[in-house]
Every structure is written in C-alpha cells, then in structure tokens.
C-alpha cells in the first residue's frame, strides 16, 4: 500500500466552504498520487475555531467548544471524501465532548474507511499544557482497527513516547502517530518515540505534524514538524529505519510504500526479534542490584 502523511498548515478560514475546499484538495492530491492511507495530524481541527471568529479562536475554552460543535459535520465530510476517493483517512484530531468517557473534553482522532466505516481513538496521556492549561482529559481505551489495509493502531503524539502503550498495540502492522509540537525538541521527542515503537513492535510507524504559525490561537500558535514513515532497521527495510521523511516545516504530503509482507517477515525471521523477545525483560525489570563504585581518598 501507499501511505501519505501530512505536514499540515492551519488556516484562518473564511467560511465552512473554505474548509471543505481545503480538505478536498488535500485528499484529492494524495489520492491522485496513489495513496491508500492518508494521515492528518493532532489538533489539526483547531483551525475550525476560526469559523466563530478570532476572539473565540484565541480563547482556550471557547475554542474547544467551537471545534467540538463542528465535529459531526467534519466527520461527515471525511466519510464522504474517503468514499469518493477510495481511501482510508485518519482525520486531524479534535477536542470532543463525550460525557460517556470523561467529564472534560478528550482529544479524539477518527479513522474513516472508503466503505463507510469509522473508528475513534482518544489520546491516553496528556501533556503538561493539556493538563495544566487546557484541561483536556484522558479518553477511552486503546483500540486496534482491523482494516482492509491491515491492523492499524493510533498513538496520538505524547502517547508514542510510552512503550507500554505501544506494546498494548503489538498486533498492529501500522502505528499512526498524529502530532503537534511547538519546538524542534518536542518534534524530536515524538519522532524518537515513533521510531522506538516501530523498533520494538517491528512494525511501521507513520508520523504526521502540524506546521507553521497560527497567531489566532493559544493552543497551536507555533508548530514545528514534518511527515515521516519509520520501520525497524532490519531486513526488508532501510538501514536507518526511515522509509520516508519530508523537509522540516514544509507543508505537503510525504509518501511511502508499505509492504505488509515485509512486516510479517521481519517479525518472523529478522536479524533481531524485539517483538518476540519483549517478554525476556519480565523478571529483570523489577529490583535493581545497586553496586557502589566510589573512589575514596584517605
């Protein structure tokens, strides 16, 4: 299959039709390049707050509710585009109000299939900004999506930095890592996390990013990143583990060919077998023997 992952700039939208035109153009371009799976980034939906005006977009709490109110029609648009162009789409994540899951809004990504299916994945672990300033809540459980393209898991941004979450999705062939980071250091953390999860699970990790400035927002005002696709640096994959990567902060799609047979082969008979050998840590990861090696001057 061919994967397209976005370096996605946020716009101040004139009206709903401007958003429809933007999304249609992005999906049309990737589908025209033969992409089967399109991956948009974390909180890319925050540009929808501008439809309620600059003051609303700049207000952290008001922006949550403005975007959340648009999610149903955003989802209908993505479902239509997925069917029209025959692609799977991970929509940009959005704050969603779901009292059945949490008292506060959650950060939710939605995966659309060309046959009308939709699955949702909530972020598990909040960053300091989400906890301390924005009050976004941890959402529902991790899910594994069994699709026509293979088994897909989603680790939203910070979630990718936690190996036990990646291990919970060890049956995934492809891990999607939608992200938004305000500095190169943050982008590097998520990138390293995505690469580490690909190494541990011997799978492919697909990272998307918000890029550019948005002076109308407190939450996504400065974003640094790029699209990239990683695999284990093992047989059937590049020696660096990097299948593809875009230029830093350059808007557009990054494409990579993903071979599910190569994933199966490396898991079965790779030079290393990280995924199978994970359990060898058990019993060796509890008590640590502290040995004192200090120089004493008498």
Q: Which shape, going by the Cα principal axes?
A: globular
Strand content: 15-25%
- Round the Cα radius of gyration to an integer and report it: 20 Å
Average pLDDT confidence is 97
Distance between the termini: 68 Å
DSSP helix fraction = 25-40%
Pick out the low-confidence regions: none
Helix count from the secondary structure assignment? 8
E-strand count: 13
Q: What structural class results from the helix and strand content?
A: alpha/beta
* Order of helix and strand elements from N to C terminus: EHEHHEEEHEEHEHEEEEEHH
**Largest sheet report:** 13 strands, mixed
What would you note in describing this structure?
This protein has 8 helices and 13 strands. It is of the alpha/beta class and 298 residues long. Strands 1, 2, 3, 4, 5, 6, 7, 8, 9, 10, 11, 12 and 13 form a 13-stranded mixed sheet that branches. The model has no long low-confidence stretch (mean pLDDT 97).
Which keywords apply here?
single chain; globular; 298 residues; 13-stranded mixed sheet; alpha/beta; 8 helices
